[in-house]
Design a protein that fits this description.
Layout: E1 11-14, H1 18-29, E2 37-40, H2 46-54, E3 58-59, E4 71-74, H3 81-88, E5 97-100, H4 107-112, E6 119-124, E7 136-140, H5 146-156, E8 162-164, H6 171-179, H7 181-198, H8 203-223, H9 228-235, H10 241-249, H11 255-273
Parallel strand pairs: 1-2, 1-4, 2-3, 4-5, 5-6, 7-8
Antiparallel strand pairs: 6-7
The structure holds NADP nicotinamide-adenine-dinucleotide phosphate (NAP).
Length: 275
């Protein structure tokens, strides 16, 4: 198994914003030697600039004469993708795995801007990566060898679990469920707080109750082996208050149809963006 302590060559991070920064912090905290990382980003945050300086991480390295990078990780906005990939393609050699976390940029697009036969992993992380609690789904192209995949797995695992898929088409649904999913959960916290205010609570108390309830239930779900449905049943007693609320949330116009529509809309948008 590949560990971050023993990566086979330098790792270049291209774009150290929210997601790139989260990955970098994860790598360093899991033992990736700072001397083996370099960052390309024209404008890092003050915090990240401090981290780079304190760890003496190289910035804006020149492309080597013979590319020897083990991995090039691309975490710029999708709109920047084409010219950024072309800029960094000189870092990509036969042993390099290119990992893209860009939404809506398929492997065919990435390959078009990279050297022929480049090993490419397309990955979709999500924002809880910034607290080491993300989940990432990854798909390799046919050039990815076991050692590329092991390294990609080790790098992406620094922000949470990684699931591998074979069919890239599933990435649109993945984006709609886990990529955009944190926003749905934040909306749940907002809506619950608003409903609390409507039911008579002072806003600060409603906000706090909603935030703690959503995050606490999330933590319980994570730690428990039970299905979400079982955990829900455990809070619901016959004829009680929860049951009264669930009758509405589980009705024909409740959560299920709304989320199904929302996820379908996000997946459709993901397909459109990939064109
Ligand atoms: N954030 C998420 O939850 C999330 C989830 C899944 C996937 N992603 C993907 O992750 C990627 C990055 O998203 P983000 O939220 O981290 O965006 P971000 O915070 O805007 O980070 C992108 C970084 O790339 C830098 N950059 C721009 N041009 C560059 C260049 N030519 N070379 C090197 N760096 C350059 C940007 O600098 P400037 O600010 O100066 O432009 C910025 O610091 C996106 O493609 C997104 O689809 C993000």
């Amino acid at each position: 198994m590949q560990t971050l302590q023993s990566v086979p060559g330098p790792v270049l991070l291209v774009g150290a914003g929210k997601m790139g920064g989260a990955l970098l912090e994860g790598w360093l905290s899991r033992g990736l030697p700072p001397a083996l990382v370099a960052v390309r980003d024209p404008s890092t945050s003050v915090e990240l600039a401090k981290l780079l300086a304190s760890k003496r991480i190289a910035r804006d390295p020149q492309p080597p004469l013979l590319p020897n990078h083990a991995a090039v990780v691309i975490a710029v906005k999708p709109q920047e993708a084409a010219h950024v990939i072309s800029e960094v393609s000189r870092f990509v050699g036969p042993e390099t795995v290119v990992i893209s976390v860009m939404a809506g940029r398929p492997i065919t697009f990435l390959a078009r801007h990279l050297p022929r036969n480049a090993a490419i992993v397309r990955a979709m992380p999500n924002t809880p990566a910034s607290v080491g609690r993300g989940i990432t789904v990854a798909v390799p192209n046919t050039k990815v060898k076991p050692q590329h995949r092991d390294l990609a797995h080790a790098l992406l695992s620094a922000t949470g679990p990684v699931e591998w898929i074979k069919n890239e088409k599933l990435m649109d649904a993945v984006t709609a469920v886990s990529g955009s999913g944190p926003a749905y959960v934040f909306l749940l916290a907002e809506s619950l707080a608003r409903a609390g205010v409507a039911a008579g609570l002072p806003k600060p108390l409603a906000d706090k109750l909603a935030r703690e309830t959503v995050s606490g239930a999330g933590e319980l779900l994570r730690r428990s082996d039970l299905d979400p449905s079982k955990l829900r049943e455990n809070v619901t007693s016959k004829g009680g208050t929860t049951e009264a609320a669930l009758k509405i949330l589980m009705s024909k116009s409740g959560f299920d149809p709304a989320l199904k529509k929302a996820v379908a809309a996000a997946a459709k948008r993901s397909r459109e963006l990939a064109k």
